[in-house]
């Protein structure tokens, strides 16, 4: 299992192999993390997204799945785009499973590329409205439950409130930042 680390900051500044993007199914950009990644990464990312739409992803990327592109000018090699579910109280179980799937699929795609370090945002916890504490619990328990060749899963939390929610969830799940019960 990947070592879990938490940092408060901007995901576009992370020096990691792969950055996970909380995208939408169009793959053609949006606000928040998605907007920041395309803005800071430059037009190469969108160009590859357009190619994906023109080839295997004609209808866009399905919720819960992931696909990689270049990271353009970001200090990373790849962006792994995933599409989180919109939060709605009805159909909660199915949606929560889709959110877990975003992390599993992103880790799988990143590992296939040979990534050792992957930065994740709190998928679905912004525009898509997922309550932060629950989003944190699903994110952390899913990553902690995966066997992966990815060595570090770094959660990059935007603002102290997000960071505190992830810290709390990590504690409540009985996990530690090293992922093995010991700190570095
Ligand atoms: N670095 C790290 N985290 C960030 C950053 C950043 N630069 N900017 C925002 N966040 P969101 P979603 C946090 O809305 O809920 C887009 O328009 C933010 O505070 O980016 O999955 C897409 O195109 C929140 O905690 O993703 C989709 O249409 C978390 O990242 C839709 O939004 C996720 O917020 C996806 O919504």
Outline of this structure?
This protein has helices spanning 32-41, 43-54, 92-113, 132-144, 160-172, and strands at 3-8, 18-23, 66-70, 78-83, 117-120, 152-157. It is an alpha/beta fold.
Structural class: alpha/beta
What is the CA-atom radius of gyration, in angstroms? 15 Å
Ions, cofactors and other bound molecules: ligand AR6
| Order of neighbouring strands in the sheet with most strands | 1-6-5-2-4-3
Provide the β-strand percentage band: 15-25%
Q: On the 0-100 scale, what is the average pLDDT? A: 95
CATH-defined superfamily: Leucine Aminopeptidase, subunit E, domain 1
The CATH architecture classification is 3-Layer(aba) Sandwich
CATH class: Alpha Beta
CATH topology: Leucine Aminopeptidase, subunit E, domain 1
- Please estimate the helix content: 25-40%
Number of helices: 5
Q: What is the N-to-C succession of helices and strands?
A: EEHHEEHEHEH
List segments where confidence is low: pLDDT < 50 over at least 5 consecutive residues.
179-184
Distance between the termini: 15 Å
How many separate structural domains?
1
Q: Per the principal axes of the C-alpha atoms, what is the gross shape?
A: globular
Q: Biggest β-sheet, characterized?
A: 6 strands, mixed
* Annotation, overall tally of beta strands: 6
């Amino acid at each position: 299992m990947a070592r879990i680390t938490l940092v408060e900051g901007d995901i576009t500044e992370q020096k990691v192999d792969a950055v996970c993007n909380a995208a939408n199914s169009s793959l053609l950009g949006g606000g928040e993390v998605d907007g920041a990644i395309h803005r800071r990464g430059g037009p190469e990312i969108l160009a590859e997204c357009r190619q994906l739409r023109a080839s295997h992803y004609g209808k866009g990327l399905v919720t819960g799945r992931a696909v990689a592109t270049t990271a353009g000018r970001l200090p990373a090699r790849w962006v792994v785009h995933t599409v989180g579910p919109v939060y709605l109280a009805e159909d909660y179980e199915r949606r929560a499973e889709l959110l877990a799937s975003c992390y599993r699929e992103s880790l799988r795609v990143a590992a296939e590329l040979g990534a050792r370090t992957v930065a994740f945002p709190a998928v679905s916890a912004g525009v898509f409205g997922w309550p932060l504490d629950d989003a944190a619990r699903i994110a952390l328990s899913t990553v902690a439950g995966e066997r992966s060749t990815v060595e570090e899963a770094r959660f990059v939390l935007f603002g102290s409130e997000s960071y505190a929610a992830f810290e709390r969830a990590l504690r409540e799940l009985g996990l530690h930042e090293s992922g093995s019960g010991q700190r570095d």
